[in-house]
Fold this protein.
Amino acid sequence: DVKVTQSSRYLVKRTGEKVFLECVQDMDHENMFWYRQDPGLGLRLIYFSYDVKMKEKGDIPEGYSVSREKKERFSLILESASTNQTSMYLCASSSIYHKLGANVLTFGAGSRLTVL
Amino acid sequence: DAKTTQPTSMDCAEGRAANLPCNHSTISGNEYVYWYRQIHSQGPQYIIHGLKNNETNEMASLIITEDRKSSTLILPHATLRDTAVYYCIVRVQEGGSYIPTFGRGTSLIVHP
């Protein structure tokens, strides 16, 4: 079964800490995405990547950075965590070669981050 | 991308059909309608998509009106496990940036 795996389901960090959220997919997908989800706001795109070492800003990139050194791995980095970054973070991947098309995203289970 | 409008919440009795509407009056000719759902504490999951013909798979049916300005996702025999948030998204299938935008969706509660 195809999988998008997020390294941590639950994290608790302190304000100012550097936080790494890791995402790995085993489907050889070109596209990878990071969203955050907050009550009443739906999913908001933070960053995405179409290929190794490529990254593009989404709707809310402030306070975040990303890294994609290998095709299967897309990391989200909070350089200095703040309390307003407490949220659920969702990683997803997709491929233009998917039989259902590139708009079919496969999501990970999510990482719930609490910043104290 | 065309904007979509969905009711905030709906409820349905277990075993009955759940019909989830979506309005997309500004949809253009090459845009498809996609449906995802998100069960609590999980990531969204793709359900189905279509262009203008009705579609059915093992999870659901998708009915798109002839003018394509609205669609309905049908869960023919809803179970308690279908309680989730359902997202309707409109996107071109080829080209574009392949970045689906998820709104707030419809929270479906299936009750016994």
